[in-house]
Amino acid sequence: ALGDVSQQGYAQIVALREEQQVLSSLQLNLSLPKGKEAEVELKSNVRQILILEGEMEQLQRHMQDLGLRSVTVYNENTELRLLMKEEEDNFSRVLAGYNTYRNKMEGHRTAVLQVESQTRAHREERGAEDRPGEPRGERCECCTYKKERNAGKNPKLPYLFKTHVCCSQIQNRRYDAIVKRLHCQLMKAQSGHRQLQNNLYWCVSLLSLIILTKTTDQNRRQTHEMET
């Protein structure tokens, strides 16, 4: 639509220049004494056409600026879409890694619960060891079981679980920041697009007004020529 309006404006400028030449020729013909009123009206029409021609040139420059801005907005939208695609890919990779890490930490948590359960059982067994009258052989078996069970304990499990929670919080904050940044960029691109549409509508309205004024002047000139 912007290209059509620009071409139409250029065609109107060319037509106005041709009509200016015709009017100049008519002005020379009217240099002979054919009436002061007709000469004044002709000069007025010439001045008005010159004004319209200047407005058309200004409109054409403005439309060229709008064309450049539309290219800029298009490039910004393309860059934004690429950035969003990149962030989506990064999010998918991070989410896959997070799911793997979460499953791993779930296994660690299960192991911690198992160790805690074994610790409670060990305490109960230790209390049974301290009971008087219990055979020594049974107490030795309990000690052996205790050593075997403690050998399977992992002292790093609480630290790993705490690290998992911290990583989850940091990752969530990072995702929130990415979403806010993309939202701001999207709002900026939409605002620029709306401004471009408003400017284009203004240019089209001004061009329609100029064409209407030019048509009216042509009709008045033709009527004047028929009368003379």
UniProtKB/TrEMBL annotation:
Compositional bias (Basic and acidic residues): 119-137
Region (Disordered): 118-137
Protein name from the UniProt record: Uncharacterized protein
Species: Oncorhynchus kisutch
